[in-house]
Write the structure tokens for this entry.
Amino acid sequence: MSDHQAKDSAPVEFEETIGGKQQRKLKSRATGRQSPWFGLGMFGLVGWSIALPMLLGVVAGGWIDEHWPSRVSWRLTLMLAGLGLGCVNAWLWIKKETNE
């Protein structure tokens, strides 16, 4: 197969892949059933969307506490802010996925 033929077949393969995924999603919506993998994926997504902002808050707060000591614990404050942000993010993601 020449390079030209390989380049021409790539968009077709891409369209077939996307078409297959779209058909599975439409079938899932029509039956109202989600696969077990969807639940596991959602579980992992929710966990990471909450854990990552919290960890970033802990790291940023620790850096602030180290460089500018104060009566306020920025590590704890930013961890709680990250928790709130992560929960809102997870809620919006779940809402989007269940409404589509």
About this structure: The chain has a mean pLDDT of 83. Residues 1-33 form one domain.
